[in-house]
Structure formats: C-alpha cells, structure tokens
Amino acid sequence: MPPIVGRARQIELLKPLAERARDRLDLAIRPRRNRKSDWSRRLVAENVLTPDDFVWPLFLCEGTKRREPVASMPGIERYSVDEVVRVAERALALKIPALALFPNTDPSLRTDDGREALNPKNLVCRALSAIKHELPDLGLAADVALDPYTSHGHDGLLEDGKILNDETVAVLVEQAKVLADAGCDVVAPSDMMDGRVGAIRRGLDASGHLDVQILAYTAKYASAFYGPFRDAVGTNATLIGDKRTYQMDPANGDEALREAALDVEQGADMLMVKPGLPYLDIVWRVKQAFGLPTLVYQVSGEYSMLEAAARNGWIDGDKAMMESLIACKRAGADAILTYFAPRAAEKIARQ
Ligand code: PBG
Predict the structure, then answer these.
(1) 49-87 tens-digit pLDDT
(2) For the chain, what is the domain count?
(3) How far apart (Å, rounded) are the C-alpha atoms in residues 145 and 193?
(4) What phi, psi does 322 have (nearest 5°)?
(5) Active site (catalytic) residues
(6) Does the pLDDT value for residue 114 go beyond 90?
(7) How many beta carbons lie within 10 A of that of residue 261, not counting itself?
(8) Which of 109, 174, 244, 300 has its CB 3.0 to 4.6 Å from that of 116, i.e. a possible disulfide?
(9) Ligand 1 atom with minimal separation from the 298 CA
(10) What pLDDT shows up at residue 20?
(11) How far, in Å, CA of 78 to CA of 142, rounded?
(12) Which domain holds residue 73?
C-alpha cells in the first residue's frame, strides 16, 4: 500500500521534478503564455465570427399571421409570408447578409411531377417578392429542387423507382428562372443531379438573369441529419425510400472534389458542403482545392442535437453553438447556413 498523502504534500513531492523540467530546453516554449488572459487570447485568435458569416434558413407556411412551431426543431417556426417579412427585418437589423427560404407546400399541391415548383405564385415565390419589395438590400436564396412539391418527396422526377437525371435538370432550369423572376438573388440547386449547374447558368443567362448567383450544393451527402428539416417542410411524410442514388455516400471524400470540379467548370459562383460538423474535412479540402467562396450548411439534425442536449441541461447551449460555428470557420468556410444565425448574431452583438 502506498502511503496516503494529501494534495499539498503531493505537490511538494513533485517540486524537484518540476525544477528539473524547467531547465530543459523544450520548456522555454510554453504555448500557454498566449492563453493566459482574455486580451491575449483575443489578440492571437485565428478566426472570428461576425453576423456576415451567416445565412439564415427559414421555413414558410400558408396563411396569414401564422407561426407554427417545428416539433423536431425546438425554437424554430414556420412563417406565413406576412410574418416572414417581419423576420427578414430582424435579419437586416442583425446584419445577417442573406436568408434561405424553404416552403412547406400544401399537401394538395404536391404532385408526381412537382409542377407547383414552376408556379410563379407558389409559396416561396410570394415570400421572395414580398421580402425583396420591402427589403431590397437583403440577400435572398432559395433551393432549386423538387422535393417540396413532389408527392413522392424526391428532388427529381421519378419513373419506375428511378430518379430521371436529364428530364429533372430541364425542370430545374425552369424552376431557377421562376425563382429569379420572383426576386431570388441566389439560386441553390440542392438536387444533386448531374449537369444541373451548367444548365441552370445557361437558362438564367438566356432569360436575362445574368446577375443571379448560383450557390451549388456541391457535396451534399445522403445524411440522416436532414430528418428534422423534412419534418419542417413536410417531406418526411411523403418521401418514398431514400436519396442515395443522387446524394453522396458519407464514405467518400475524393468524390466531393470531383463534384466541386464539375460545379466550378459549369459556372457555380459559390460551393456548399452539407451537413456541417461531420463533414468539416470536406469543407477544408474543397476550400483548399478551389479557393471559391465555400459555404457549409449546419443542418437541421445538427441544430436539433445541440438544442436537445442544451434544453436537457447536458451542455451549455450558447457555448456549444458558438464552438460549432467557429469550427466551421476554422475548417475554411466563408459562410455558414445555420438555424442559430439570429441567436449567434445577437450574442456577437452583445460581446
Ligand atoms: C432538399 C433539402 C434538404 C435540405 C436542404 N434542402 C433535405 C433533403 O435533401 O432531403 C436539408 C437541410 C437541413 O437538414 O437543415 N433538397
């Protein structure tokens, strides 16, 4: 049995060891010096978060004066068009540069071919024009994909259990034009069909939308972390099967670079990696390889995990939020789509 000694005595016994260690050359270098105080930590910080780093994703619903809570995303609501304009004012006040809008389409409008996507008066188009009209300086992004409009919940046209690529791309080009006409500044193809970026670019240019940017969901993985989003837009109920024939395999990294090369070649203005935290290696590689503006989407499941743990008192929600966001910056992201955008922007403003 070793003798039981108190803490003070233990430290006493270690002193000669520490003395000897101090004489060794490697201890001339003490990384902790720079961490000794708040001013010093701020001085040497390699990355910072500002509201300019955020795109705020928002869910839309029909009606007026409506705000519906999303059950699987505590703290997140769907907004009717009039309400989303109020939310957009808040974004502008918080200096958040852009919103990304996602419609929860009425089930009666979801069809096999997703034709509601091309209705210039559909929910997302009405929201785009309402916000653009009142707040022309706020950036507006919207998804190009058919999943909120199809009765089967897929991003493309489905035939005999297969997602048709080229036929889908033809529809997506029209959808991008409809969005641009409604006031969308950034169209974001999230469908993962081959060749869609180039086709959309040509379609936009031919219809006079030369300045509409394309944010390509370049490396969008077939991820379980989209679950709460599908709840928010109502596709959990509709989706038949999964999206693995078009979204990427989480096992692959090199393939993301191949996708990125194609998107760059076809005229993407910005690239996106999605989800966020589990794919920061991909963010790093894409940013290093192409040097294009590279965004990362901290997706619904990531939000809900952090929020659930925080609401249970298991983690400090605010700290975990900021840590998850700075990790995205450290990995090379130029901006982050995050449901935390307003909370993080408010926190930054208070600092
Ligand atoms: C639809 C789309 C999805 C997300 C953004 N656009 C889900 C999906 O592909 O099923 C996920 C976003 C999130 O989980 O927050 N094409």
Answers:
(1) 999 999 999 999 999 999 999 999 999 999 999 999 999
(2) 1
(3) 9
(4) -65, -35
(5) 220, 274
(6) yes
(7) 14
(8) 109
(9) 15
(10) 76
(11) 15
(12) 52-350
Tens of pLDDT, residue by residue over 171-220, are: 999 999 999 999 999 999 999 999 999 999 999 999 999 999 999 999 99
Measure CA 145 to chain center: 16
Coil, strand or helix at 68: strand
- CA dist 220 and 145 (Å) reads 13
What is the full DSSP assignment across 322-346?
A: HHHHHHHHHTT-SEEEETTHHHHHH
Residue with tokens 């006079």: 208
User: Could you write out the three-class secondary structure of 290-310?
Assistant: HCCCEEEEECHHHHHHHHHHH
| Three-point CA angle 214, 217, 220, nearest 5° | 175
230 lines ligand 1 (CB under 6 A): yes
What CATH number does the domain containing 66 carry?
3.20.20.70
As a whole number, the mean pLDDT across the chain is 96
User: What are the structure tokens assigned to 319, written together?
Assistant: 């700290």
- Is position 6 within any domain? no
Residue 66 backbone dihedrals phi, psi, to 5 degrees: -110, 135
pLDDT greater than 80 at residue 27:
no
One-letter amino acid at 231 equals D
Helix axes 165-182, 196-206, angle to 10 degrees: 40
Q: Atom of ligand 1 at shortest distance to CA of 301?
A: 14
β 54-60/77-79 pair status: parallel
226 located within any domain = yes
Q: Is 190 in the pocket of ligand 1 (CB under 6 A)?
A: yes
| Residue 212 within a domain | yes
Q: Which of 16, 10, 102, 13 is nearest to 55 (CA)?
A: 102
From the CA atom positions of the chain, what is the Rg in Å? 24
Answer yes or no: is the C-beta of 141 below 6 A from any ligand 1 atom: no
Cα of 38 from ligand 1 centre, angstroms:
39
Q: What is the largest CA-CA distance in the chain?
A: 85
Q: Is 217 in the pocket of ligand 1 (CB under 6 A)?
A: no
pTM: 0.94
What is the token pair recorded at 302?
């990531």
